[in-house]
Amino acid sequence: MKDIKTADLDWIIQETKSTLQKLGSDKNLQGMQRFGIQTTTAFGTGMSPVRDLAKTLKQSQASHRHELALGLWKENIHELRILAAWIDDPKAVTEAQMEAWVKDFNSWDLCDQVCMRLFCLSPLAEGKIQEWAFRGAEFEKRAAFALIAAMAVHRKKEPDALFLSFLPLIEQAAEDNRNFVWKAVNWALRQIGKRNSILLEPAWILALELAQSPHKAARKVGKDAVREFEKKFGS
Question: What fold characterizes domain 105-235?
Answer without folding.
Answer: Leucine-rich Repeat Variant (1.25.10)
